[in-house]
Amino acid sequence: MFALFKPLFFLQCFSLLSVRVSGQTNEVVFKEGVKIEVIELPSECSQKSKKGDLVNAHYDGYLAEDNTKFYCSRSEQDGHPKWFVLGVGQVIKGLDISMMDMCPGEKRKVTIPPTLAYGIHGSGKIPPNATLIFEIELFAVTKGPRSVEAFKNIDLDNDRKLSRDELNHYLTEEFLRDGKPRDRSVHDQILQDIFQKNDLDEDGFISAKEYNVYQHDEL
Ligand SMILES: *[C@@H]1O[C@H](CO)[C@@H](O)[C@H](O)[C@H]1NC(C)=O
Predict the structure, then answer these.
(1) Phi/psi at 100 (nearest 5 deg)?
(2) Exposed site from 4, 19, 175, 209, fewest CB < 10 Å?
């Protein structure tokens, strides 16, 4: 079984690579040291990716020096596209830079210098000082878990800080929405945990600044 599946995954990765060599000229831009080539742009763009957005993408990684593939998200785990928050260091710096302002459905080929990837030491399959090439296909862009919209929804009295009551109300609504009854004590525990992790100055409120950890939008 295993032997059957492996080649299939390689084929899936390979088909994207062939897009790259099909000879059309694409728009190329340089951004903060990353070379970004747009391979495919959807005719309609619903929402461009921004810092703090939750994005869903496939990306395959190659070493620039010999085109060895060192990573293919299509064959990792179940081959599901990866979810991550953009622009906050959940992926290497070069990917954070190269995936900004990207449309769902867009494909890019990006070339990332070692300083924005794994540096002078490398890591695992990545040798020292390696320039990396990624082929990225973006599927979805959604507002991050800590968007301005979410904050405003919770902040019922619009005083730009979240009280225990406001969060309590919000949690109750959320739990009602997902239809799973929860024990009162679980509820209190979550609330306490939220304040412990977020109320850094311990004034009993979560301020806009404490909430907006990704600093992606003006609150
Ligand atoms: C990597 O680059 C650094 C800085 O340019 C250099 O000092 C180092 O020798 C390089 N390492 C290798 C293994 O090439």
Answers:
(1) -75, 155
(2) 4
Q: 119 CA distance to ligand 1 centroid (A)?
A: 9
Give residues with Cβ within 8 angstroms of 162, minimum separation 6: 151, 154, 155, 205, 206, 207, 211
pTM above 0.90, yes or no: no
Average pLDDT score over the chain: 83
Q: Which two tokens stand for residue 133?
A: 């090439």
131 CB less than 6 Å from ligand 1?
A: no
Coil/strand/helix, residue 73: coil
Best CA proximity match to 144, nearest among 88, 99, 207, 79: 88
Confidence of residue 11 (pLDDT cuts 50, 70, 90): very low
Contacts with 204 (C-beta within 8 Å, 6 or more apart), sequence order: 163, 164, 195
- Mean pLDDT throughout 130-139? 96
Per the CB < 8 A criterion, the answer to whether 131 and 113 are in contact is: yes
Confirm or reject: Cβ of 42 under 6 Å from ligand 1: no
Rounded Cα distance between 123 and 56, Å, is 24
Asked whether 65 lines ligand 1 (CB < 6 A), one says no
Non-local (6+) Cβ contacts of 203 within 8 A are: none
Closest by alpha carbon to 169, among 197, 138, 191, 149? 191
